[in-house]
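User: Before I run my own analysis I want an independent prediction to cross-check against. Here's the chain; please return only the structure tokens and, at the end, one sentence I can use as a sanity check.
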Amino acid sequence: MSIINSLKGDKVIWIVVLSLSIFSFLPVYSASSNFGVNLIFSSVFKHVAIIFIGILIMYATHLLDYKYLRGLSLIILPLAIFLLLITAIQGSEIDGANASRWISIPIINISFQPSSLASIFLLIYISNYLSKVHEKKINFNNSVFRLWLPILLVVMLVLPSNFSTSFMIFSLSLILIFIGQYPIKKIILIIFSGIILSGSFVGLSKTYPDLVPNRIDTWSNRIENFINPSLDNDSNYQINRAKAAIASGSIFGVGAGKSSMKYILPQSTSDFIFSIVTEEYGLFVALIILLLYVILLFRIVIVSQKSNNYFGKLLALAVGLPIVFQALINMGVAVQLFPVTGQPLPLISTGGTSIWTTFFAFGVLLSVSRNNANIMELDLSENVNE
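Assistant: Structure tokens:
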């Protein structure tokens, strides 16, 4: 009971996050069964440990005052950009294409994705900047270096190895900036500039593939397969298997652990775990999962609206919206509403850095809601005393 009472903030968010996290043990265990007996337990144990650490991160973060993130973002964002640069320079390749996403920490030999760290602290940094200039007339010239340069650096460093993540970072940054009442004309100008820069990058990559390692061919194939799903080639293998898994699940599924597609569907524990969930537990459970993410979206907006601090309002959206958008994109890919992106399903897919940053984001969100509750209690006590 004392543990439950110590959980502050929005109780609905706590319930949804913990429910999805605990549920993830089932599909991860099932989807890992194509690894062999020894690797099954190794994969599941690792996932359980990562989730447990993630919950501790969320709990510890929700006890902190979110306002400390103002200064923290000024320190961690430059560090994250530096790590992105180191990761890009190391030049990991898959079939000749840039796949530099992970960096290894010396001594402890743990790998993580700097893009996860950079994306969340970039959005926190943007929230901090917009909250400071909220009551002032925003000067575009002054914001070029303080606002747009960090966005450009993060997006351009992530782009060569992960187009979908860089696109999400850029899009969510624009959404947050729009909500922060930045001049619309300037936002449109930035969008056109982004299109021109992206086009230039693609053209340069096509012309000098050895100079700029990238995954242009992979992106092109995914978009082509999305536009022409009837194409019979190896690139459609994943999505065809994913749709077959969903179709065989029907309304109530084939039963826990009885998926047949998990043996032949690549990335069944991460990118396409939603297909395995739907196959085993059916459309009914899949819709419940979708509903839970929609509930999270509503609670994120409510927490934002209840905050009496403009930084808190933006911060709640900055850390919450990316999680919901990523979940919707992952589920949309499984049913071919979007091209294959490689985005995991938050709280359910296996992972490491991405899971911990997700729990950290929820911790920040709960910190904002906890602060809202404390202010309401203070107001009530003052009214009673009067």
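Sanity check: Residues 2-385 form one domain.
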